[in-house]
Structure formats: C-alpha cells, structure tokens
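Problem: given the chain below (263 residues), write out its structure.
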Amino acid sequence: MVKKEYICEKGKRSSIVIEDVSIEIREGATLILGFAGIGLIGPIVANTLIEQLPDVKEIGFITSEYLPPISVFYAGVLKHPFRLLYSSQSNLIIGICEVPFQIPTAYNDLSKTICNWALSQDVKAKELVIFQGIPQRGIIDEYPVYYAAEEVMIDQLEKFGIKKVEKGIIVGPEATVLNEALVNRLNAYALFTPVLEIPTPEGAASIIEVLSRIYDLKIDTSSLIEQGKEIKARMLELAQKAQEYQKQQQLPGSGKEYTGYFQ
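Solution.
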C-alpha cells in the first residue's frame, strides 16, 4: 500500500499521513472536524457519522509532536487517536480527534497542517465545519443549534433554519482551525449547542440532524437521545442522593455516617 505524507511549511511539527493514495477524494469536499472538547460533541458526532454512513473508509491519520501519550482501541484493535475518514457518496471528510493536545500552542501548528492538506491538489476541499458546546449547568431540556460562519456561508445556512449566534468567542483547536480558514480559500462555519461538563449525546444528536439536512444524510439519532436520557436519569439520581445526605447531616443525632453517593 502506497502512503503519502503532507507537511506544511508553517506547521512542521504536525503531518498528515494518507495510508492509501488510491482512494480519490472528489473536489469540493466538506471537511468535518470533531475535537474532544466540552461535552465531547465533536467525537460523538464524528463517530456517529462514521458508524452510519454506508461507504466510509479510513484514509489516514494526523500526527503531531504535541499529541499526548495516549492510545485508543475499539474491540481490541488499536487506532490512531486522530483519524481521517472519507465518504465518497456524501463527499465528506471526517476527522476525529479523541484526545486533547498537551499544550495550546500545538493547535496553531496543527491548523496550518490541516488546512494546507485540505487545499492541496489531492483534496481541493471547499468547506470546513467544527462543533463546540455551550456549557450549561443543571438539566438541559432543549438542544437548539446555532451557527457562526464566514459571510459567504450565511445565506446557505439560513436556508436550513439555523439560528445565528450574534456575538461570542470560540476557543481551543476549533478556534485556530477557523482562524486559519479565514485567511485561505476554505469556507468555514461552526455549529453550537448547549452541553454539560460530561458527554452530551443529545446535543450531538441535534447537530447531526442539522448536518443531515445540509448534506442530505440519513443518520438515525435515536440511540444518542436514549443515551442522553440515561445520563440525565443518573444525574437526577445522584442529585437526589446528595439532597438526602444533606438532610441527614442536618438532623441532630441521626447517627448515620456518610458512605458515598454511589451505592
């Protein structure tokens, strides 16, 4: 199998390795990047697309000196922590990063490498999309999706009834990739949804439903919604146990000792 490595002049500490150059990426592809941010929206969205798109193939991986010393595996099979996959039918490139980078400065190097490859003659991607959670406390009942985009993308996104975020900031690797896209030919946008400080599959489901409308995908999100309900039920149970414990502590001479919430 013939491999090809892409190294950007401005991002020399990262590289993209395409493990099978026989897989042809059609011009005008959309690059979807799922980073391991708050709520794990990115990896959940990316993994769901990978599992359900019928023709997804793993084409390579992104490597960097800044990647932490972490390995991941599924069903006993080791996987690179930052993988690239491609669906020819949908013309989607999916990048999934399941580990956080060690230092923030790594993202600048990484973003240059990613965008350089996406615009290379072998890819010629057109769009780039990232996801970021809006942190919330307590129970979330609804998961609306918002967008922020380059001006050239606004009319297209408005057609799908997505609400615009009027003002705010984006942080982390998503921000550096978007900033890099602003100075090149990629048309970039971000999708946001409320999340908890733990995995929030219901938020990921809302974003997937938006992506399905934009790119005409047929993705079933029912399992993600069920997972969200289970997480919410566990949170409520823990909260109730915490309240019970606090009441016990307030009762004089209760004679009960704290043994933890996980019983």
